[in-house]
Amino acid sequence: MKKSRIALMSTALVAAGATAIGTATTAQADTTNPTTNNTTTGQTQTAKTSQSELDANIKDAQTAVNDAKDKTGQAQTAADAAKGAAVQSKSQASTAQATTTKVQTDLSTAKTAEAEAQQVADSATDDAINQAQDAVTNQQNQNQQLTQTVDTAKTDVDKAGDSVNSAQTVVDQTNTDATQANQTVANAQAQVDHAQDVVDGKDSATAQQNLATAQQDLSQAQTNVKQANDATKQASQAVSDAQTKVTSAQTSVDQANQAQSAAQQNINTATQAQAAAQKALDDASQHQGSTQTFTLGTEYVNALKAYNDAEGYNLNSSDPVVHRLIKASDAMSQMLKFQSNAVDKNIKINGRQDLTPEVLSQLSTYAAQLINSMRDEFGAPHVIVTNGSVKFAGDIADEVTADQWILAVENAHDVPAINRAAAKNGLFSKATANMYEDAALAKATSNLGEWHLTLDDFKQMIFTSLQSFMANDEEWSHANSILGAAAHGKDQYFGVSFSDSIGENVLGAPGKTLNFDSHFAFVPQDSSYWVDESKFDKTAIKNETVSANEIKQLESDLATKKTATNTAKTALATANTNTTKAQNTLTAAKTTLATAKQQQANAQTTLTNAQAAVKTATAAVAAAQKAVDETSASDATKQQALSDAKAALKAAQAVQSQKQVSLTAAKVKLATANQALAQAKAKLANAEAALKAGQQALANKKVYLDSLTHADANLAAAKQAVVDAQAAYDQAVQALKVAQTTEDSDAVTYQQLQQVADVAKQVLVAAQAKLDQLLQTKALNDAIDRTNQETSQSKSAQGESMTNTEHDMTNGGGTTLNTKYALGTEHATTGGNTVTLKAHRALSAEQATTLQQRKAAMAAATTKSTSTLPQTNEKADRTVSVLGLMVIGLVGLLGVTKRRKRI
After folding, report:
1. Residues 157 and 677 sit within 8 Å (Cβ to Cβ)
2. Which region holds residue 27: left if phi is over 0, alpha if psi is between -120 and 50, else beta?
3. Whole-angstrom Cα distance, residue 393 to residue 385?
């Protein structure tokens, strides 16, 4: 709901409430005055509220409840809409507050910047600028020196790094040499120990046993090599066979893919060909020639020729020649029927601007088709539609329209308009009578605005006009003109168009009508018609219409293309299947090949391991044989071997000591080189830090110099920034005030409308309570009816033995009336008469109790319903009136349909 509407509603409701408070009066509950029991019938039944009155009250109460429900719903809807507006305005106020805070910060920042800019501007003297420029220059020179220092430090670091690398290489090499020397010593020590064992005679038996074991291991290793070699050959053959299958499967896949690609290409080609055929058919359908015919018939042709030969225009209608032509005309006319075209119906023509040269060309071609078919029957030259003839026909229609000439009114051709059009197109234009056109009233409509016509409508106008020319039972001059009477034996240039003019009471039609006249323009090739042929374009307009046979051929071609497409799709499906199968075969072959290669690798590993085992076993046999030989040697030989081993150990230990000294020296040099490198890197870091600080100092000095140089501009910009920030702040503050005002207003509106909704709910509760009371009263009345009915039935059953009270009733004249009442009262006064009741027979205790209960029920029902409804104090009644008027005001504003007002 728009805020303006909410405000209006709120104002109206408050006004309505104020009025109600000022004018409300005390509301009284409905009361009824029950008549005194003066029934003079033999028996009187228990009193109750009138049933018809109670039904009316219930109906009114139900209507009040329904109205209250409607008003409650409408009031709550309005309150909910106001609540939504209040929430939205609160959100907008919060956003405005945030915006104000931000722009206030921006303003403070801008003022600080302005103060700083002012300070700089105050200090921007020529001396200060020169000093700043000198400081920049000095810093640049310092930075250049620092850069050179950094470059030198980098070179020193590189050199120190090279020294470290070189020293590390020496350490690595001497460490390797020392390790090898240690191993050599260990080996020499083992040889000494072994030679000592030989001298001591230990291991002789063991050596012989080791030799036998080594020889047995060698034999087994050689067997394993043979078996592994055979397995490797088998695995290699399996790999070869699997590779052959993979190659074959790959070839099949390649061939299948090629077939698939070819099939896809065939589909693409076939689909494109189908699409082209479909497009050709669609395009042809847009230009499909009309199947409309205009057949004269042999009898009509012969009758018209006989009419012409007999100069029938001089004969009356009773002449046999004329009568024959009339009869033939009627027969021919009955056979003619216009055929609509769905495509033409979609081409809208709503004004002269839509009668474009293209549209007039289509209409002229359509008319020429009909005229030439008639001329073929009559044996006359054809008409030719050209650019010039279409333009000429269009010019005639435009000129006639400009004159607002209505053929049906003037009953003559607009010769001046025709001459003006002829002059524009290089034709003879001095004629005093029509030389070029046949015209007819084509259509009249009361629609004076947009035409709301279609190309199909105009083709129907052409057909209707030709029909009026060829068969009107009055004259046949137009028929002869259509059939080429003025063609001079040659084809005529032809075009058609339409003029539109507004007339009043045309042909007796009441009011204004828009009248369309058709203009069939014929231009013979005879020289007497031409003045300036350069103004008349004789280029024939190509007939782009497509014949039905061509449509059939295109449909057949499309069907062939669709068949080819379907065949190609089937071939592609087969190719896809073959490709999938080939791919699956290739995948299986590759899996087999991978397995074979893995088995081949495993076999090769087994063979390699077996060959290594043979080498190990061979070496073990050689070592065992050497041990056997050593234990079998002489003591002198054994002793010499021990001496040689000890000498070799001593030599190895000497080399070991030398290598260890070299390693220690190399490590010292490496430590020195690393220390030099660390020092060089520290110098480089210090130099780079100094350069970085110099560069930052240079940047700061340049900024300071720039601030001095552009101090005035910067100050102006800062001042403008303050102005802009101040404007933005002022605008934000104003927007905040508006938003807060709107927020407050919407909150108040919501509270007011919610109060109205709450009041409407209270009214609904009150109306429902009253309805409930009336429904309760109706229920009690129904109970009274049942009680009375039971009492009557009881008395009827007891007859004269029923307990009755006899009494005498006398009127003022002393007349005594004997009657019986069912009530056990002492007496009652009715209309001035005094009734004296006499106890005839006492009621039983049970009957008396029942009667008292029924009387109490009757009294309660009467009190709670129409007899004496609960009274309300004046303040409460005033409130209800106010609330009711406020709800009524709300309903009026919401535009709710008026309900029947009950007085």
Report:
1. yes
2. beta
3. 11
Looking at the chain, the whole-number percentage of residues with pLDDT higher than 90 is 64
Are 514 and 444 a contacting pair, CB within 8 Å? Answer: yes
- Label residue 301 by pLDDT band (50, 70, 90): very high
Please state the φ and ψ torsions of residue 6, each to the nearest 5 degrees. -60, -45
Q: What is the mean pLDDT of residues 703-711?
A: 91
SS3 per-residue string spanning 780-843: HHHHHHHHHHHHHHHHHHHHHHCCCEEEEEECCCCCEEEEEECCCCCEEEECCEEEEEEECCCC
List the structure tokens of 162.
């090279």
HSE at residue 203, side-chain half, CA atoms within 13 A, is 19
d(CA 44, CA 353): 94
d(CA 732, CA 104): 9
Task: Please state the φ and ψ torsions of residue 164, each to the nearest 5 degrees.
Answer: -60, -45
Closest CA to 209 of 697, 521, 628, 711: 628
**pLDDT tens readout for residues 655-694:** 999 989 999 999 999 999 999 999 999 999 999 999 999 9
Cβ within 8 Å of residue 698, ≥6 positions away? 136, 139, 140, 143
Report the half-sphere exposure of 715 (CA within 13 A, side-chain side).
Answer: 15
* Alpha-carbon torsion, ordered 420, 426, 427, 430, to 10 deg: 50
Question: Please, which residues bridge with residue 839 across strands?
Answer: 805
Q: Which residues, including other chains, have CB under 8 Å from residue 842's CB and lie 6 or more apart?
A: 803
Cα 403 from Cα 418, distance rounded (Å): 11
Instruction: Report the SS3 class of residue 436.
Output: coil
The angle subtended at Cα 190 by Cα 184 and Cα 193, nearest 5°, is 145
User: Considering just the CA atoms, what is the radius of gyration of the chain in Å?
Assistant: 63
pLDDT at 554: 85
Residues 545 and 288: beta-carbon distance below 8 Å: yes
Output the CA–CA distances (angstroms, integers) from residue 594 to 34, 241, 387, 582, 589, in the order listed: 115, 12, 80, 18, 9
User: For 245-276, what is each residue's pLDDT tens digit?
Assistant: 999 999 999 999 999 999 999 999 999 999 99
DSSP state of 545: -
Segment 449-497, tens digit of pLDDT: 899 999 999 999 999 999 999 998 889 999 999 999 999 999 999 999 9
What is the reported pLDDT for 9?
39
CA distance 649 to 193: 11
Helix (H) or strand (E) holding 205: helix 204-286
- Point out the least confidently predicted range of 26-40, 204-218, 333-347: 26-40
Note the pLDDT tens digit of each residue in 810-846.
Answer: 344 443 333 333 333 333 333 443 333 333 344 455 5
Strands (E), 301-411: 348-349, 383-385
User: What does the alpha-carbon distance between residue 216 and residue 225 come to, in Å, rounded to a whole number?
Assistant: 14
Name all contacts of 871-876 with Cβ < 8 Å and 24+ positions apart. 871/28, 871/29, 872/27, 872/29, 874/26
Report whether 420 contacts 399 (CB < 8 A): yes
Amino acid letter, residue 814: G
Q: Which helix (H) or strand (E) holds 374?
A: helix 357-378
Report which of 120, 141, 144 is spatially closest to residue 705, judged by C-alpha positions.
120
pTM exceeds cut of 0.85 = no
Say how many Å lie between the first and final Cα of the chain, rounded. Answer: 34
Query: Position of tokens 């979609």?
Result: 346
Q: 809 pairs with which residues across the strands?
A: 817, 835
Lowest mean pLDDT among 14-18, 506-510, 540-544: 14-18
Task: Compute the residue count for the chain.
Answer: 903
Q: Is 111 exposed, middle or buried (0-12, 13-18, 19+ CB in 10 A)?
A: middle
Q: Do residues 454 and 348 lie in contact, with contact meaning Cβ atoms separated by under 8 Å?
A: yes
